[in-house]
Amino acid sequence: MDLITIEEARAHCRADSDDDAMLEVYGAAAEESVQNFLNRRVFKDSDALAAAVLDDSAGDDPMVVTPVVKAAALLILGHLYRNREEVVMGDSAAAAQLPVGATTLLWPHRVGLGV
C-alpha cells in the first residue's frame, strides 16, 4: 500500500495486527480501484510523483493523494474487509461498482472520460 498506512487501515476497519496481511491485500486493491476509477496514477507525496515523472512512469494527469482520495480508498478498503464474499445486487454491473460514498468523493477528480 502506498496511499494508506497499515495503521490507518487497522483503525478504519477496527482490526488488529492479526489481520495485517488481509488489510494489505484489500488496501492495495482499494488503491488500485481508486486509480482505475480516476483514470490516473495517484502518488503518496510530491517526491514520489516527481520520481515517477523522471522515470516516465507517472502516466497522464498524475496527482498527489488528497484527503478526499484517501477517504475514498479507505471506504473501498472497509467494504472489501467487511464483505469478503461477493455482494449480489441484482445484476453483475451493479455488483462491480464501487461503494457510493467512494464514487461520490472521487468523481470530481476523474480525467479522460472521453466524449
Automatic annotation (TrEMBL):
InterPro entries: Phage_gp6-like_head-tail, Phage_HK97_gp6-like
Coiled coil: none
Pfam families xrefs: Phage_connect_1
NCBIfam families listed in its UniProt record: put_DNA_pack
Name of the protein described by the UniProt record: Phage gp6-like head-tail connector protein
